[in-house]
Specification:
Blueprint lengths: L1 E7 L2 E8 L7 E3 L4 H4 L15 H11 L7 H8 L29 E12 L2 E11 L13 E11 L10 E6 L6 E8 L4 E8 L5 E5 L2 E4 L5 E6 L5 E6 L6 H14 L1 H7 L6
Parallel strand pairs: 6-12
Antiparallel strand pairs: 1-2, 2-7, 3-4, 4-5, 5-6, 7-8, 8-9, 9-10, 10-11, 12-13
């Protein structure tokens, strides 16, 4: 498997030129300290707390030129391109991450771009995760990361050479909030999604303008219909690492009657 990655400062994209159907496409963003204003020597075991006062402080830092991270700015403007779907990835000055918390340890994604077989169907899925840090450690037990959004989409169109049928990008430049976005194409439709996790543990996703409150379930299934409409199924699940979510989705597609029925309805594409 050969992976080509291109960085827009805070955003990492991935495409694949050579990929076996059985291989899961994945990538992990490794954040270096100069790019993100983090300082490992300042790590603390104190519990992270977030409220409106801290949000106002964060906003003030964004508007204060003396608080802007020069390392992040130089990394971002060195890679300016017009890219990103469904939203163009903009470049903004951002404050030093360590002004709020110094334990940021990266984020990334995992998924299956080639499509998991379900009877005669193909299911493409993506998950977006954040590595363990002071913001989430009290909520994820001993896990090394947590998935805050996973989406599995039924498709009838898989580009086995260039994988142009799907894409994903993630960003930490809103730190201590996190965001990711992408799409999955069918022959006649396109499923766009944007998702974010806020520092106060609220998480949301928008899929083709349908809003999902991820506090009631971080896994969303989408089944495009023959008439051009969409169907969705949001599933509750405990906090999972990306490895656990990967195994969970595969098990659902093999054994869960509700999930199998959802993806194999006669009106689906």
């Amino acid at each position: 498997m050969v992976l080509y990655t291109a960085s827009l400062g805070n955003v990492i994209f991935i495409t694949s030129a050579i990929m076996n159907r059985s291989i899961i496409s994945a990538f992990l963003i490794i954040m270096v300290s100069f790019s993100f204003g983090c300082n490992d020597s300042k790590k603390t075991d104190n519990t992270f707390e977030w409220n409106l006062d801290r949000e106002r402080e964060h906003n003030a830092n964004r508007n204060d030129s003396t608080k802007i991270s020069q390392g992040s700015w130089e990394a971002d403007i060195g890679n300016i391109t017009i890219s990103g779907e469904p939203l163009i990835n903009g470049i903004f000055p951002v404050p030093e991450y360590s002004l709020l918390d110094s334990t940021f340890n990266g984020m990334g994604s995992w998924g299956d771009w080639t499509g998991i077989d379900l009877e005669s169907k193909k299911i493409v899925y993506h998950s977006i995760y954040v590595n363990r840090n002071n913001l989430n450690k009290a909520f994820i037990e001993d896990k090394e990361n947590e998935v805050f959004f996973a989406i599995a989409v039924l498709t009838d169109s898989v580009d086995q050479q260039w994988f142009s049928h799907t894409s994903l990008s993630v960003s930490s430049r809103n730190y201590p909030h996190f965001a990711g976005q992408g799409f999955v194409k069918t022959k006649t439709n396109k499923v766009d999604f944007v998702s974010f996790l806020t520092a106060d543990r609220n998480a949301y996703a928008i899929v083709n303008m349908r809003l999902f409150d991820l506090r009631i379930g971080r896994l969303v299934l989408i089944a495009p219909q023959k008439d051009g409409t969409l169907r969705s199924l949001q599933l509750d699940s405990p906090v999972m690492s990306y490895e656990e979510m990967d195994a969970h989705i595969k098990l659902l597609l093999k054994q869960d009657e509700e999930v199998i029925r959802f993806f194999t309805q006669a009106n689906n594409i």
